[in-house]
Amino acid sequence: MKRMKKVASLLASVALLGVLAAGCSQETAKNSPAGSSEKEVKYPTKPIEITVPFAAGGGTDLNARAMSEYLSEKWGQPINVVNKPGAGGATGTLEVLKKGSKDGYSILTQSASAGSALFAGNPNLPFKLEDLRFIARLAVDPLAYVVKADAPWNNLKEFNEWVKQNPDKLTFASNGTTAIATFGVIQWMDSIGADFSKAKLVMTNGSGDALPKVAGGHIVLGVQGVSEVANLVKAGKLKILGIASSERSPYFPDVPTLEEQGVKGVTVTQWYGVSAPKEVPDEIVKKWEKSIEEMLNDPVYQEKLKSIVVQPSYLNSDEFTKYVQDEVERFKQIANEKGLVK
To answer: In this structure, are residues 277 and 107 in contact, taking their beta carbons and an 8 Å threshold?
Structure first.
Protein backbone atom coordinates (compact mmCIF):
# COMPACT_ATOMS: atom_id res chain seq x y z
CA MET A 1 0.00 0.00 0.00
CA LYS A 2 2.79 2.37 0.94
CA ARG A 3 4.50 1.54 -2.34
CA MET A 4 1.33 2.32 -4.34
CA LYS A 5 0.94 5.67 -2.55
CA LYS A 6 4.56 6.48 -3.32
CA VAL A 7 4.06 5.65 -7.01
CA ALA A 8 0.88 7.72 -7.16
CA SER A 9 2.63 10.64 -5.52
CA LEU A 10 5.49 10.39 -7.98
CA LEU A 11 3.13 10.31 -10.97
CA ALA A 12 1.29 13.36 -9.66
CA SER A 13 4.55 15.22 -9.28
CA VAL A 14 5.58 14.34 -12.84
CA ALA A 15 2.20 15.49 -14.15
CA LEU A 16 2.51 18.78 -12.27
CA LEU A 17 5.97 19.35 -13.63
CA GLY A 18 4.60 18.67 -17.13
CA VAL A 19 1.88 21.28 -16.71
CA LEU A 20 4.33 23.83 -15.34
CA ALA A 21 6.77 23.13 -18.16
CA ALA A 22 4.05 23.51 -20.76
CA GLY A 23 2.92 26.77 -19.22
CA CYS A 24 6.45 28.12 -19.15
CA SER A 25 6.98 27.04 -22.74
CA GLN A 26 3.83 28.85 -23.89
CA GLU A 27 4.75 31.99 -21.95
CA THR A 28 8.26 31.94 -23.38
CA ALA A 29 6.89 31.58 -26.92
CA LYS A 30 4.45 34.40 -26.34
CA ASN A 31 7.08 36.76 -24.99
CA SER A 32 9.93 35.78 -27.30
CA PRO A 33 10.72 37.77 -30.48
CA ALA A 34 9.83 34.76 -32.62
CA GLY A 35 6.46 34.39 -30.93
CA SER A 36 5.59 38.06 -31.10
CA SER A 37 6.62 38.70 -34.71
CA GLU A 38 4.60 37.76 -37.72
CA LYS A 39 5.63 34.57 -39.45
CA GLU A 40 7.65 35.26 -42.59
CA VAL A 41 5.24 34.98 -45.49
CA LYS A 42 6.22 32.72 -48.39
CA TYR A 43 5.85 35.26 -51.16
CA PRO A 44 6.25 35.38 -54.05
CA THR A 45 6.07 31.74 -55.08
CA LYS A 46 5.07 32.44 -58.70
CA PRO A 47 5.33 35.27 -61.26
CA ILE A 48 3.86 38.67 -60.43
CA GLU A 49 2.13 40.89 -63.00
CA ILE A 50 2.50 44.64 -62.70
CA THR A 51 0.08 46.76 -64.72
CA VAL A 52 1.08 50.21 -65.94
CA PRO A 53 -2.04 52.23 -66.87
CA PHE A 54 -0.12 54.23 -69.49
CA ALA A 55 1.83 53.53 -72.64
CA ALA A 56 5.43 52.35 -72.53
CA GLY A 57 8.20 54.91 -72.23
CA GLY A 58 6.61 57.39 -69.80
CA GLY A 59 7.60 58.05 -66.21
CA THR A 60 5.17 55.53 -64.71
CA ASP A 61 6.38 52.83 -67.07
CA LEU A 62 10.09 53.52 -66.47
CA ASN A 63 9.63 53.39 -62.70
CA ALA A 64 7.66 50.15 -62.94
CA ARG A 65 10.33 48.48 -65.03
CA ALA A 66 13.21 49.63 -62.85
CA MET A 67 11.44 48.37 -59.72
CA SER A 68 10.41 45.09 -61.36
CA GLU A 69 13.95 44.29 -62.45
CA TYR A 70 15.29 44.93 -58.95
CA LEU A 71 12.61 43.01 -57.02
CA SER A 72 12.59 40.11 -59.48
CA GLU A 73 16.26 39.53 -58.74
CA LYS A 74 15.75 40.04 -55.00
CA TRP A 75 12.76 37.69 -54.74
CA GLY A 76 13.82 35.12 -57.32
CA GLN A 77 10.56 35.26 -59.26
CA PRO A 78 9.66 36.87 -62.61
CA ILE A 79 7.84 40.21 -62.40
CA ASN A 80 6.14 40.97 -65.70
CA VAL A 81 5.21 44.54 -66.66
CA VAL A 82 2.19 45.01 -68.94
CA ASN A 83 0.95 48.32 -70.34
CA LYS A 84 -2.80 48.90 -70.43
CA PRO A 85 -3.28 52.58 -71.33
CA GLY A 86 -6.53 54.43 -71.79
CA ALA A 87 -9.01 56.83 -70.16
CA GLY A 88 -6.35 58.71 -68.18
CA GLY A 89 -5.30 55.57 -66.31
CA ALA A 90 -8.79 54.23 -65.63
CA THR A 91 -8.51 51.34 -68.12
CA GLY A 92 -5.48 49.74 -66.46
CA THR A 93 -6.80 50.40 -62.96
CA LEU A 94 -10.12 48.75 -63.77
CA GLU A 95 -8.30 45.76 -65.26
CA VAL A 96 -6.40 45.16 -62.01
CA LEU A 97 -9.41 45.72 -59.75
CA LYS A 98 -11.90 43.63 -61.69
CA LYS A 99 -9.79 40.92 -63.31
CA GLY A 100 -6.62 40.81 -61.22
CA SER A 101 -6.00 38.41 -58.35
CA LYS A 102 -6.39 39.62 -54.77
CA ASP A 103 -3.41 37.75 -53.35
CA GLY A 104 -0.59 40.12 -54.21
CA TYR A 105 0.18 38.78 -57.67
CA SER A 106 -1.69 41.55 -59.51
CA ILE A 107 -0.05 44.91 -58.78
CA LEU A 108 -0.70 48.41 -60.17
CA THR A 109 1.99 51.04 -60.64
CA GLN A 110 0.40 54.48 -60.44
CA SER A 111 1.24 58.12 -60.74
CA ALA A 112 -0.50 61.26 -59.56
CA SER A 113 -2.16 61.35 -62.99
CA ALA A 114 -3.74 57.90 -62.65
CA GLY A 115 -4.28 58.33 -58.92
CA SER A 116 -5.27 61.61 -57.29
CA ALA A 117 -6.13 63.51 -60.48
CA LEU A 118 -8.16 60.63 -61.91
CA PHE A 119 -10.33 60.29 -58.81
CA ALA A 120 -10.70 64.04 -58.24
CA GLY A 121 -11.88 64.78 -61.76
CA ASN A 122 -14.07 61.76 -62.51
CA PRO A 123 -16.92 61.23 -60.03
CA ASN A 124 -18.51 58.46 -62.16
CA LEU A 125 -15.63 55.99 -62.34
CA PRO A 126 -16.59 52.28 -62.15
CA PHE A 127 -14.43 51.96 -59.02
CA LYS A 128 -13.70 53.98 -55.87
CA LEU A 129 -10.57 55.18 -54.14
CA GLU A 130 -11.36 52.73 -51.33
CA ASP A 131 -11.12 49.80 -53.76
CA LEU A 132 -7.34 50.26 -53.84
CA ARG A 133 -4.75 49.42 -51.19
CA PHE A 134 -1.98 51.97 -51.55
CA ILE A 135 1.20 50.06 -50.71
CA ALA A 136 4.13 52.48 -51.04
CA ARG A 137 5.28 55.60 -52.83
CA LEU A 138 8.46 55.14 -54.86
CA ALA A 139 9.55 58.50 -56.23
CA VAL A 140 8.62 62.07 -57.07
CA ASP A 141 9.08 63.94 -60.34
CA PRO A 142 8.46 67.70 -59.90
CA LEU A 143 6.68 69.56 -62.68
CA ALA A 144 8.77 71.55 -65.13
CA TYR A 145 7.25 74.48 -67.02
CA VAL A 146 8.74 74.41 -70.51
CA VAL A 147 8.51 76.38 -73.75
CA LYS A 148 10.27 75.90 -77.09
CA ALA A 149 13.98 76.59 -77.01
CA ASP A 150 13.84 79.77 -79.11
CA ALA A 151 10.77 81.24 -77.39
CA PRO A 152 11.09 85.01 -76.73
CA TRP A 153 10.93 84.67 -72.93
CA ASN A 154 14.28 84.34 -71.18
CA ASN A 155 12.86 83.61 -67.73
CA LEU A 156 9.63 82.93 -65.90
CA LYS A 157 9.15 86.58 -64.89
CA GLU A 158 9.00 87.66 -68.54
CA PHE A 159 6.65 84.80 -69.38
CA ASN A 160 4.38 85.63 -66.43
CA GLU A 161 4.02 89.22 -67.63
CA TRP A 162 3.15 88.08 -71.16
CA VAL A 163 0.56 85.60 -69.85
CA LYS A 164 -1.10 88.20 -67.62
CA GLN A 165 -1.46 90.53 -70.60
CA ASN A 166 -2.37 87.80 -73.12
CA PRO A 167 -4.14 84.95 -71.29
CA ASP A 168 -6.24 84.23 -74.38
CA LYS A 169 -3.06 83.51 -76.36
CA LEU A 170 -1.77 80.93 -73.89
CA THR A 171 -2.14 77.35 -75.06
CA PHE A 172 -0.99 74.51 -72.82
CA ALA A 173 -0.74 70.76 -73.28
CA SER A 174 -2.58 68.39 -70.96
CA ASN A 175 -4.07 64.90 -70.88
CA GLY A 176 -7.43 66.31 -69.82
CA THR A 177 -9.40 68.98 -68.02
CA THR A 178 -8.54 67.49 -64.63
CA ALA A 179 -5.08 66.10 -65.37
CA ILE A 180 -1.94 66.96 -63.43
CA ALA A 181 -0.75 69.47 -66.04
CA THR A 182 -4.08 71.32 -65.86
CA PHE A 183 -3.93 71.59 -62.08
CA GLY A 184 -0.33 72.81 -62.38
CA VAL A 185 -1.35 75.53 -64.84
CA ILE A 186 -4.28 76.60 -62.65
CA GLN A 187 -2.18 77.00 -59.52
CA TRP A 188 0.52 78.90 -61.41
CA MET A 189 -1.94 81.26 -63.15
CA ASP A 190 -3.81 81.90 -59.91
CA SER A 191 -0.53 82.76 -58.21
CA ILE A 192 0.49 85.35 -60.81
CA GLY A 193 -3.01 86.81 -61.14
CA ALA A 194 -3.75 85.61 -64.69
CA ASP A 195 -7.21 84.55 -65.91
CA PHE A 196 -7.19 80.76 -66.35
CA SER A 197 -10.64 80.77 -67.98
CA LYS A 198 -9.15 82.42 -71.07
CA ALA A 199 -6.28 79.96 -71.53
CA LYS A 200 -6.74 77.15 -74.04
CA LEU A 201 -6.12 73.52 -73.18
CA VAL A 202 -4.79 71.41 -76.05
CA MET A 203 -5.61 67.76 -75.40
CA THR A 204 -2.58 65.50 -75.80
CA ASN A 205 -1.87 61.84 -75.12
CA GLY A 206 0.98 61.98 -72.62
CA SER A 207 4.38 63.63 -72.69
CA GLY A 208 5.47 61.78 -75.83
CA ASP A 209 2.72 63.59 -77.72
CA ALA A 210 2.76 66.91 -75.87
CA LEU A 211 6.42 67.86 -75.71
CA PRO A 212 7.27 67.60 -79.44
CA LYS A 213 4.31 69.90 -80.11
CA VAL A 214 5.68 72.42 -77.61
CA ALA A 215 9.16 72.10 -79.09
CA GLY A 216 7.70 72.71 -82.55
CA GLY A 217 5.84 75.83 -81.44
CA HIS A 218 2.36 74.33 -81.94
CA ILE A 219 1.60 74.67 -78.20
CA VAL A 220 3.03 77.48 -76.07
CA LEU A 221 3.47 75.73 -72.72
CA GLY A 222 4.20 72.22 -71.52
CA VAL A 223 3.92 71.17 -67.88
CA GLN A 224 5.45 67.74 -67.38
CA GLY A 225 7.69 65.91 -64.95
CA VAL A 226 11.38 66.79 -64.99
CA SER A 227 12.18 63.25 -66.13
CA GLU A 228 9.87 63.64 -69.13
CA VAL A 229 11.27 66.95 -70.36
CA ALA A 230 14.94 66.12 -69.71
CA ASN A 231 15.87 64.63 -73.09
CA LEU A 232 14.40 67.44 -75.20
CA VAL A 233 15.89 70.07 -72.90
CA LYS A 234 19.34 68.49 -73.18
CA ALA A 235 18.87 68.23 -76.95
CA GLY A 236 18.26 71.98 -77.14
CA LYS A 237 14.61 71.66 -78.23
CA LEU A 238 12.97 72.96 -75.05
CA LYS A 239 13.91 75.33 -72.25
CA ILE A 240 12.73 75.14 -68.65
CA LEU A 241 11.44 78.42 -67.20
CA GLY A 242 10.91 77.01 -63.71
CA ILE A 243 10.34 73.88 -61.65
CA ALA A 244 7.59 73.45 -59.07
CA SER A 245 9.59 72.17 -56.13
CA SER A 246 10.72 73.33 -52.70
CA GLU A 247 14.33 72.81 -53.82
CA ARG A 248 16.13 72.97 -57.14
CA SER A 249 16.24 69.77 -59.13
CA PRO A 250 19.52 67.86 -58.79
CA TYR A 251 19.26 67.20 -62.53
CA PHE A 252 18.90 70.88 -63.49
CA PRO A 253 20.53 72.78 -60.62
CA ASP A 254 20.81 76.00 -62.64
CA VAL A 255 17.03 76.25 -63.12
CA PRO A 256 15.34 78.24 -60.33
CA THR A 257 12.19 76.97 -58.67
CA LEU A 258 8.86 78.72 -59.16
CA GLU A 259 8.99 79.96 -55.58
CA GLU A 260 12.43 81.51 -56.11
CA GLN A 261 10.83 83.46 -58.94
CA GLY A 262 7.94 84.73 -56.83
CA VAL A 263 5.33 82.13 -57.74
CA LYS A 264 3.82 80.81 -54.52
CA GLY A 265 1.36 78.04 -53.78
CA VAL A 266 2.06 75.57 -56.60
CA THR A 267 1.86 72.24 -54.77
CA VAL A 268 1.08 69.90 -57.68
CA THR A 269 3.78 67.32 -58.30
CA GLN A 270 4.10 64.05 -60.14
CA TRP A 271 4.70 60.92 -58.05
CA TYR A 272 4.95 57.19 -58.69
CA GLY A 273 3.74 54.44 -56.38
CA VAL A 274 2.45 50.91 -56.04
CA SER A 275 -1.06 49.75 -55.18
CA ALA A 276 -3.19 46.60 -55.33
CA PRO A 277 -6.81 45.54 -54.85
CA LYS A 278 -7.95 46.29 -51.29
CA GLU A 279 -8.22 42.57 -50.47
CA VAL A 280 -4.44 42.02 -50.65
CA PRO A 281 -3.28 40.40 -47.35
CA ASP A 282 -1.53 42.61 -44.78
CA GLU A 283 1.55 40.39 -44.68
CA ILE A 284 2.01 40.86 -48.45
CA VAL A 285 1.74 44.64 -48.06
CA LYS A 286 4.38 44.51 -45.32
CA LYS A 287 6.75 42.58 -47.56
CA TRP A 288 6.35 45.09 -50.37
CA GLU A 289 6.85 48.00 -47.96
CA LYS A 290 10.03 46.56 -46.50
CA SER A 291 11.46 45.57 -49.87
CA ILE A 292 10.71 48.93 -51.50
CA GLU A 293 12.25 50.85 -48.62
CA GLU A 294 15.40 48.71 -48.86
CA MET A 295 15.42 49.15 -52.64
CA LEU A 296 15.22 52.95 -52.45
CA ASN A 297 18.13 53.00 -50.00
CA ASP A 298 20.27 50.78 -52.21
CA PRO A 299 23.02 52.85 -53.92
CA VAL A 300 22.78 50.64 -57.01
CA TYR A 301 19.07 51.38 -57.38
CA GLN A 302 19.64 55.07 -56.67
CA GLU A 303 21.96 55.16 -59.67
CA LYS A 304 19.18 53.56 -61.73
CA LEU A 305 16.80 56.34 -60.66
CA LYS A 306 19.35 58.92 -61.76
CA SER A 307 19.35 57.33 -65.21
CA ILE A 308 15.59 57.91 -65.50
CA VAL A 309 15.84 61.36 -63.83
CA VAL A 310 13.53 60.87 -60.85
CA GLN A 311 14.05 61.31 -57.11
CA PRO A 312 13.41 58.54 -54.55
CA SER A 313 10.68 59.50 -52.09
CA TYR A 314 9.42 56.66 -49.91
CA LEU A 315 6.10 56.60 -48.08
CA ASN A 316 4.78 53.46 -46.38
CA SER A 317 1.24 52.24 -46.89
CA ASP A 318 -0.41 54.35 -44.19
CA GLU A 319 1.52 57.49 -45.13
CA PHE A 320 0.90 56.98 -48.84
CA THR A 321 -2.83 56.39 -48.34
CA LYS A 322 -3.17 59.60 -46.31
CA TYR A 323 -1.13 61.52 -48.89
CA VAL A 324 -3.38 60.41 -51.76
CA GLN A 325 -6.60 61.04 -49.82
CA ASP A 326 -5.52 64.59 -48.96
CA GLU A 327 -4.38 65.27 -52.53
CA VAL A 328 -7.68 64.05 -53.98
CA GLU A 329 -9.55 66.50 -51.75
CA ARG A 330 -7.28 69.40 -52.80
CA PHE A 331 -7.75 68.56 -56.47
CA LYS A 332 -11.52 68.23 -56.04
CA GLN A 333 -11.62 71.72 -54.56
CA ILE A 334 -9.66 73.14 -57.51
CA ALA A 335 -11.85 71.31 -60.02
CA ASN A 336 -15.05 72.56 -58.39
CA GLU A 337 -13.82 76.15 -58.11
CA LYS A 338 -12.92 76.26 -61.80
CA GLY A 339 -16.00 74.34 -62.99
CA LEU A 340 -13.91 71.56 -64.50
CA VAL A 341 -16.23 68.71 -63.49
CA LYS A 342 -19.52 68.76 -65.35
So the answer is: no
